[in-house]
From TrEMBL:
Record's protein name: Restriction system protein
Classification via InterPro entries: Restrct_endonuc-II-like, Restrct_endonuc_IV_Mrr, Topo_IA_Znf
Boundaries of every Restriction endonuclease type IV Mrr domain copy: 128-235
Pfam families attached to this UniProt entry: Mrr_cat, Zn_ribbon_Top1
Gene name, Swiss-Prot/TrEMBL: mrr
Keywords: Membrane, Transmembrane, Transmembrane helix
Top-level lineage group: Bacteria
Keyword Membrane (UniProt): yes
MF terms in GO: DNA binding; DNA topoisomerase activity; endonuclease activity
GO BP annotations, alphabetical order: DNA restriction-modification system; DNA topological change
Cellular component aspect of the GO annotation: chromosome
UniProt KW Transmembrane keyword: yes
Amino acid sequence: MAKRARLPSLVEIALFEHWKVSAAIAAILLVVDAAVLPILQSSGIPVLKTFGLAAEPVGYILAGAFALIAALNRYVLRRRPRRKYSLAGTGNFRATQAMERTWHAPTIGRTVTSLYDRPDAWTLELLLSLEWKRFQDLCMAYFEEKGHAVECLLLDTEGRTAIKVQQGEAEFFLVQCAAGAEEAVSAAAVKLFCEVLNHRKIAKGFFIAAGEFAEEARAYANTNGITLMTGSMLMLMLQRLPDVAQKRLLALAAAGDYTTPTCPACGVKMLRRKSRRGEFWGCRNFPRCRQKLYPVSVSAQVGA
């Protein structure tokens, strides 16, 4: 016999739904205490009178508790800073009506559903189809295969990340990754990465993109000593690894669902959703998390 799904309790609803839900529950309890219980207390029926007297203080306590939850949801919990990633700093983000950052993601409908769909060789289309987190993990794994110690660094309070690659005991460099395929990486994105390097006094930086770089970005990188790597260059680098290493990284890149984007705030796979603006990826922890990623076309850069 199938196990029945557990219904959420009133407290769970108050904690995780909109603050107005908690406020409404508090208001209902106050109305019951002020209007209904006095009628029971003045009743000539002993059981109802006893219940009315006993329930009055409990009602006020519960009303106060739900009012407090509403206040916390409204003024504290909803204003906590969310951890946000700039999808490896491409700068290809746009503001929603709520002025939150959103990032581009692989085209909706490209999710791998069968083992037979999995690639058995490196292709540019594969690199372009990787969601932002998987692309960054692949770049980290590549440098590990080359014998370097790596770690993912949080660059600022907005959640921008980069890969720190150790070169020897004291020397290291930073790697910025840019997944997605909608447009060439802009000069503004490269400039932002350069500012990070200068602020941290790091002499060497690599910017790896699954797609291409704009001409202005190439010129700025050449002037400021940043090495740019396109998806085509990364594919050649991967193909030059030993066969065993290639298979290991290919298994990492194509494991599970590698096209559905990961929520930058929660680290879970996102869900396809629709709105008046069209299709997008939304966090499965909504409404606690309101991150959105918008789909882009992969075929634009692979000639399909």
